[in-house]
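With this grant's support, we have paired protein sequences with backbone structure tokens. One protein thus recorded is set out beneath this paragraph:

_____
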Amino acid sequence: MRRVLIRVMAAVLLVPLLNGCTGIGYYAQSVDGHLKMLSAREKVEKLIDDATKPGQLRAQMALARDIRRFASDELALPDNNSYRSYVDTGRDYVTYAVFAAPEFSLTAHTWCFPVYGCVPYRGYFFRDAAVEFAIKAQQQGLDVHVAGITAYSTLGWFADPLLNTMFRHDETYLAGLVFHELAHQQVYVRGDTAFNEAFAVAVETTGVKRWLKQTSDAAALRRYEADLARKAVFLELVAQARADLAEVYAGPGSDAAKRAAKTAAIEKLRRRYRRMRDGRWGGYRGYDGWFDAPINNAKLAVSGFYNDLVPDFVRLLAACSGDYTTFYEAVERIGALDENRRHAALKAAKRCR
């Protein structure tokens, strides 16, 4: 623990030198929250073997152990101490992310940090702090979206634990989170959130499919693929709304006219969703929560970061014959390119090598 504290304190001492525009209080809450996570860790294997623990918890830990082993053995993800311990945070979300964008733009505001580079969000361990910052951003005229986060990665700097928040749904949800967060440890390009998140989503979704095939759970695989198909339709709806709004923002007209057109485009998105839900989806209401909550530029921008490049990464993995080791090597080569060439090279990639 002493070595961990030294590493954290070293990072804190470097903060004023590396980033003068973010207050030390912000970093203090991050360090405090993460240290509490680290100090509360319990080893997964010990929890499995402890007969005094609830049966459900022991079963969850056994499942997590198998998923973690699969991640390294079959997906070639880092074989380290991450996700081999557990913390019950006692809450629904471990952190909260605040996204912001101008009123008439889908370009998210970014903040720059040591190690991670510039990212389109600020993370908080405590909801009140996230809401306080969001209110300040709104007062500056920005569209703001606050999202609860169930898992996070320190990019391999620390042994990230499993969290109770990661077990809120079924095994595909847990497996997806573990694969996603370990993917960030495998490849991470400073300052390119769209590249990093789409890469991690590609590893997540292809990895979960492979996991379900290995466990011979055909019914779960069908459900997962159906969920992915609905997600693809959802993303198409959101992408169309983003295109509609981009046209509004780039066009002529007063702020009042653009504001009215923006409201109309968002309501059009909601109508298109309801038609899809009640028609083609046969009443499936899994996305109701997203559409019932406020929709603005910040919220719409998030979907782009996590999804726009995913098909390109999946195609590259197929070009690598499904071999994750060579896939990661190809992604690292592309990631090493300068920002202006990186995304174009990914989209143009036809071969693994």
Q: What stands out?
A: Residues 1-22 have pLDDT under 50 and may be disordered. Residues 219-307 form one domain.
